[in-house]
Structure formats: structure tokens, C-alpha cells
Automatic annotation (TrEMBL):
Positions of the Bacterial surface antigen (D15) domain: 308-601
UniProt superkingdom: Bacteria
Protein's UniProt name: Translocation and assembly module TamA
Localization: Membrane
Keywords in alphabetical order: Membrane, Signal, Transmembrane, Transmembrane beta strand
Amino acid sequence: MTFARLLAVLALPALLSACGGDEVDFAVPDTAERFSYDVVIENAPNAEVQLVAEETLDLYLRQDDGTASPAFLRRRADSDLPTLVSILQSQGYFLAEASRTVTGDGEDEPLIATLTLTPGEPFILSSQRFNLQDLTGTPPVLDPATLGAPINAPADAEEIILAEDAAVAALRRAGYAYAEYESRDVLGDPESNTATVTTTIRAGRPYRFGPITYVGLSRVSAEYLTTYVTWEQGVTFSASDLADFQQRLITTELFNAVTVEPPEDPPAQEALPITVTVDERLPRTFSTGLRYDTDLGATVTLGVEHRNLFGRNERASFDVSLSENESSAGIQFTIPQFRRDGQDLTIGTRYAQIDEEAYNGEVIEASIGIDRRINEEMRGGYGLLTERSVVVEDGANSEINLVGLPLFVTYDTTDEPLDATRGLRGRLELTPFAGTVNGAEVAFTRLDGRLATYIPLDDEGRTVLAGRVRLGSITGESATQVPVTRRLFAGGGGSVRGFARDSLGPLDSDGDARGGLSVVELGAELRYRFGETLGAVAFVEAGNVTDSELPDLSQPLRTAIGGGVRYYSPIGPVRADLAFPISPRAGEDAFQFYLAIGQAF
């Protein structure tokens, strides 16, 4: 139960007749001797009463300060009794009573404040009726049980309030834009131990969506923002549609702040005008990043993005990545809301100079693609990409020319992109390729799937069990006929920690991993966050690459274990991990160290 909800429950006036009082203590000098004490609650009808008492009673909140004497402790306990009764009444124990005893002197005998409860039987909510005032038109059916009222169950105040909130929300979704809670009457029958609740809501009249006015625009096109509207002018007003529109404008990243609201006072006409007030962000963003891997050394990234090039949130970005093994630069141009709602068109090109153990040379890529929102959790897309590369592999030159038709689908229910504590995240890519390698024709299909899940082990999400799996396959050509730039690799900070980047699987004549046709990666990580800014993790990861078209699970996986620390910064968790391969082979490092921003997966 949140603190705000707890205050609402304890303030339920008709259910809770005595809402406690302020403690009255005599001033005690700071130098006065303090006595520690314990608190015991007897006869609590359930664990929630104990929990809420610990969150609200002065006896608990000031326990670390101790008390000046048994007399002061008795006064403190007396001031808590009305609040304790209110807690019981909020759960339907309307006739509850509470008393206290204080034993011990704090010196020879321990000082104990004992709160004894006499809750009685809970009152059962027999009905909850919604009385709609100033009503015009036909409102939606407000069935209390469907809205969450505890009908034929103990008259729990929180559930009653939630049902009232749900009733108001249902009215606002049905056009009653100014519906609001007004009052509540509760009638209890001690003989039958039942209660009835009548909630008065000022409903008013229903409205329809009217014209939209934008305030604060200077560089952004109002016409473009209207493409995010999910309703037609003249349809029945819905507060949830309004909230969805506001959230969609926020996700454009064009604004520092967005509010979408009807007039403060109910208008006389049926068409409800909507005002969108925005504070535009500066259009340019500069970024820099630094990461470190034992095998790769430091990697520096620099980037600049320009949003809203022509007033419709067109985005152009340029980025550079520099490391000992790879230097690359890329340009990307994106047109959002391309021809339909939720669809983006992206055009990009990238040049890279690569000096990996498997190969070295120059790679040039260009692509164009469509990225479409399917629903709140899923996206999908398709496109066209080309590659022209000149590389050296195992002492032999290769001139690679490829065309690919990438298809992808993603699924994401996680709560945070950089530090998920719950949910599921997956991506499946399928790309048919055709082209030539040194003039010889090749054709193959590459399938790569990744799935990660995050399971909170406590209510606050401080302890999280995270797991991931990756499966990949290439069909159509043998491993050595597939261009090295498109083979499957495993190992490294974003793959299987504990091993050098792309080091797992079949080896070439120089003893370097050359990639293969199938890949398997597995990982599990236990994350624990202590305090506001620090955390620790322990993990185990395994994987391998083979020349079979399908992942060969009969071959043993290479495994590593490790741990790390996390610093939770305003831009995301900064991670430092140390991983150790189990049974390292000749030439492999005994450990790998990683430093980067964001969780490993």
C-alpha cells in the first residue's frame, strides 16, 4: 500500500470516526537519558494490520530515538491508539477497540509497549450505490462488483475507494469529462454486521471531442502532431484517449513538457475543445560514451543527433566509434509517422575498418527499412541492405558483394530499457542474402533470435533474477562459403562474458575463431541493489558456435562465471564485471574485465 493510498484510507470519514491525534510530549533536553524499548501488537487480525501499524505509528517511527521515561512512552502509546483503531476500521472492523500497557523501567527490566487489539467481527459490505448528480444523458452501467467494490466481503476502505475511482474513470471514458467524486455515506448495522455505502459523484453532461489548439509550438508542425491523435473530431470524449495522446507526444522526444487538457470549467457546448501546451526541446543532442573490455581495450563513441529537421520530427544522426580493433562511422536519417500511424522509414549507411582475429579489412553497408508498431508490446519491420567489403581472412583476400532482405519482430514488456526489473524482451531477425564472394555466387539465409526475461524476487524490485537465451542458424551454404562478415560468432561483453570477443567456435589455420553456421548462448544473472546508488551481481554464462546448420546441443558449451558491481547513475547503471572461464584453453585469458553503461542484457 502506497503512503498516499494509506492516507486516503485512513481519512475515510464515515468509516473511521477517530483519526488519531498529535502526540503531546513535554520538551526533553537533548542531554536527557534515553531508554530503548520494544513494541508488541497483540490480537492483530491479519499481517497487513501489523505492517500498516509499523509504517504509521509513532511508537515505531520514533523507536530508534528511544524515550525519556516510561511515562513518556505511555503518552506516546496513548496518542497512537486512535490511529490503530482507524487502521482496523479501514478493514471493516468498525467496532474495534485498542488498549495499551507499558511494562519495565528500561534499566533492570526491558521497556515494552504492548498494544492489545479487540477487533471484533468485520462488517460485510452488502451494497455500494453510485448516486450521480447533475446528470445529463445516459451514463455507462456502474456495477460496483465489476468496479472492484468488496460486495459480500469485509468492507475494506481501500477497495471501496478504488471502486469509487474506477466509477469516476468509467464516466470520464464515456464522455463525462468533468465527473468527480463528491461525498460518501456509510450506514452500518451492528446487529447483522453489514454495511452499505452510497457514493455521490457529480457527473454533469457528456461531451464530444472538439477542435485541438496547440500552444508553445515554434519549430514543430501542428499538422504532424495531429497524426498522433487516436480519435476523430465529434466522437464521444474519453479521458483515456486524452492521456494516450499526451503520452504519445512525450515519446516523440520533441518536448521538455507536454500537457493535453480540456478547459478548466465545463463549457456550455457539446464539442469539448482540447488544448495542447508544449515546451519544445532544443533540436540537437550531443553524446559520448566510453567502455572497456580486457580483449578490446577502450572503445570511445561520439554522436550528434538533430531532431525535427523540417518540422515533422525528421531525425538525422552521425556517430563515430573508435577502438583498437574497429573504427567506424555511420549516418542515419529517420522519418517518423511515414504514411501511417506508428510507422518509421529509416535510411542509413556505415563504413568500418576492422582488425579482428577472424578477419581484417573494410566494410561498407547501406540500408533502407520500415519499422512499424504492431501493438504496445510488439514492433516489426522489413527492408533492404547492401554490403561491399574487402577483407583478409586466414591470409586470403575476399571481395564481398551482398544484398539482403531483413525482416524482424520485437516483443518488449519490460519496465526500463537500461535496467529492467520485470518483463520479457525478445527479438527475431530473418535475413535472406544473395551475392558474390570473389565472383562466386552465394545465397544463404540467416536467422538470429534473442530472448531475455526479468523476474523480481521482492516487491521493490531490488533483487532481480535475469535470464537470456540466443539461438542462431544459417542455411544454404557451408560455413566457409558464407562470407565471414555474416557468419555467427559468440563471446565477449554482449555475448558470453569470460571469453574474448567472437572467440568461441571453430578455428582457422592460425588458431583464430572463424565463426560458424549456428550459435547458442545462455545466461543467468542475479542482481541485488542496496541503497539508492549501489548494487552487485553474480552471473553464469555459456555458449558455443558450430558448423552445423542447426544449433548442435550435443556439443558441450563453453562456460564462465563471474560477478560485478553497479553504480546507478542518472543516465543508467554503470557496470563493472569480472568474468572467469571454466577450464580455459591454451592461449585464453584467465579472466575478462568489462566496464560499460547499462546492464549486460
